[in-house]
Task: structure prediction
Amino acid sequence: MRKVLIPIDLSEVSEEALRHAVECPCAETRELILLHVVDPLDIKSLGLVGLVDREQELRNEMEKEGRRHLDELVKKYARDGLSFKTRIVFDRPWRGIINTAIDEQADAIIMGSHGRGRIAEQLLGSVAERVVRKAPVPVTIIRPRKMRDHLIARWRHLGKES
Ligand SMILES: Nc1ncnc2c1ncn2[C@@H]1O[C@H](COP(=O)(O)OP(=O)(O)OP(=O)(O)O)[C@@H](O)[C@H]1O
Ligand SMILES: [Mg+2]
Result:
């Protein structure tokens, strides 16, 4: 796994996926591509709340916010032997993630199980689920720490799960 794509939705969970990619001692990763996808549907839904004429402006703001966040992460996780590339894409997130993995010839995708949505009872967020189902490269799913601890406790208690 020399080249790994990390989709970043600006949540703490996606940063945990990045931390895993950077710190995993078994990885021979040399290049990390940090990708933020701006969803046109998010812009449209914001536009509906009385902001119809501001679509382009909102798009620019969301691009800027994404870029700033990715740049901060690059600074925070920079280390010798690891190169970073950042990309912002406008698309549905799951489709942007898969197409970028293919374009960049990534060996793998490492992403959070959840993101900015509310951490609900569901075991996987909708973007994570679609990427796992459709991506042509291996996908590693990282759970938020709290959920990981909760699942471990439940497995210990029950012994087995269905
Ligand atoms: N817009 C995005 N750009 C880049 N990566 C994303 C984006 N949205 C989600 N991801 C990636 O997918 C992972 C899982 O997020 P997902 O959106 O599936 O969960 P959620 O937000 O909790 O649920 P949902 O979106 O279904 O309400 C995130 O940790 C991140 O790695
Ligand atoms: Mg989400």
Summary: Strands lie at 3-7, 31-38, 83-90, 108-112, 139-142. The first helix runs from residue 12 to 23. The two ends are 32 Å apart (CA to CA). The longest strand covers residues 31-38.
